[in-house]
Each structure stands twice: as structure tokens, then as C-alpha cells.
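Ticket #4471: structure export looks truncated?
Reporter: QA, pipeline team
Priority: medium

Steps to reproduce: submit the single chain below to the structure queue and open the exported record.
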Amino acid sequence: MPTPADAPGDGRLPIRSEPDIVLARQQVRRLTQALKFSLVDQTKMITAASELSRNTLIYGGGGDMVWKLVHQGVRSGLRLDFIDQGPGIPDLDLALKDGWTSGNGMGMGLSGSKRLVNDFEIDTGPGRGTRVSITRWK
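Actual output as written to the record:
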């Protein structure tokens, strides 16, 4: 069950169709505004979330965006996990290269998202789905 969009804290949003990508962007905007991210940092996180939501839908067959407000010492941030049960990424090194695409995209999804955030992790493998975790610190 999705968490209400205006709820603080942690939550989950299903990504099952194109309109869910828009909802994911809107939720990330609300969260980054609540954390008082600069406009530039808001835009970076929203852009990364948009790219990864689209990947979750198109290549993973749908999944979830999970968010968590995180703290490390005196700093706070936003962690987003994009989780699917799709076919996984067979060649992660290739998928992370700028300009590479397995479809009709521009090839900026994973590599572009990685550049927009402070922390980027990916766990994937053929037949076991993909989990991409990104964090932006304030």
C-alpha cells in the first residue's frame, strides 16, 4: 500500500505504469523540499529518480520506489531504492558506460543518475532483478 504523498518519513510507491513515474517525481520533489535541499540539488535528485523510475518500468517490468530519510552525523539526506524483479542486468559494466543503451533511450539512465547523486549502489544479476540505491546529502 502506498504511503500518502504528504506523509513524512519512509515510504514506498509502486511503479507499474507511466503515470507512476510522474508520481515518483512529484514525491521526490516534496521530499527534497521538506529536507530544504537547494533548487539545484532538488533538480538533480528528481532527474535521477525520473530516469531510474523509467528504467524500473521499462527494463524491470515494474517495481517500487522506496524512500528513506537518512542521517549521518550532523548531515541528513534522502535515500531512494528502485527495486524490480525483472531479468536483471547481464553486463553491469557495459550498462554503466555513458551512451550505452539496451533500448531506444539516450543511454543516460544509470550513468547519468550516478553523476547526479552522492552515493550510488546497484545490485543486479541475470534472473534476479535489480536494486538501484541512490542518496543525496544536504
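Status: closed, not a bug. The export was complete when the record was re-opened. Leaving a note from the reviewer for reference: The radius of gyration is 14 Å.
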